Amino acid sequence: MESTSDLHPSFISPFSDNQARAYEIDYQVPVEYQMGMQIREKLPQVNFSTLNEDTLFFLFYLFGNDYVQLSAANELYKRDWRYHKEERIWLTRIKNIMPDQKYDTYETGVYCVFDVQLWRKTHKSMRIDYDKLDGPVVKQHPDVLASKLLQQQYTPMTSYNTNTSR
């Protein structure tokens, strides 16, 4: 536990903005072990709508800058969760509780927040500016999403205005 060396050269952290990718590993992987491209189309697609919220949060934080992260985020959006870009937290309105105040650009109230440090949902009173919330990514084929990720060099998603009630 007192060691200052890395736990593993390709593992950064599930909470890191970056992860070590296969191309960042400093040794040559034999071609016969590089099966991803050969079997990708044969694997069944994961049905994210069947996963519980804890699993979706786990996938979101574990697979940063990956199609899995985008898919988990899309499913969380479908379940009325929103990602706050500045606070870097997931939040949603509490069922059957309306915001205390609601305006065109923001609202205030008590919200259900996913605390990644405690790995649980908590309630928090806060002001939500709509322009600080991330929006859903349009569902597309995995190859299209992957190429967009590379082109955008992992820039944040576009803003999302939530003027409708939940």
Concise account of the structure shown:
With 166 residues, this protein is α+β, with helices and mostly antiparallel strands. Helix content is 22%, strand content 18%.
Features of the shown structure:
alpha+beta, disordered C terminus, SH3 type barrels, 166 residues, 4 helices, transcription regulation, Not2/3/5, 5-stranded antiparallel β-sheet, elongated
The total strand number stands at: 5
* Silhouette: elongated
Return the CATH architecture of the domain at 45-152.
Answer: Roll
> What string gives the helices and strands in order?
HHHEEEEEH
CATH topology value of the domain at 45-152:
SH3 type barrels
Which structural class do the helices and strands define? alpha+beta
State the CATH superfamily name of the domain at 45-152: CCR4-NOT complex subunit 2/3/5, C-terminal domain
Helix content class: 10-25%
What value does the average pLDDT take?
78
CATH class of the domain at 45-152: Mainly Beta
Q: Give the low-pLDDT segments.
A: 150-166
Largest sheet: 5 strands, antiparallel
Gap between N and C termini: 46 Å
Supply Rg: 19 Å
Instruction: Tell me the strand percentage band.
Output: 15-25%
Domain NOT2/NOT3/NOT5 C-terminal: 9-133
GO cellular component, one term: CCR4-NOT core complex
Organism: Rotaria magnacalcarata
Pfam family, one: NOT2_3_5_C
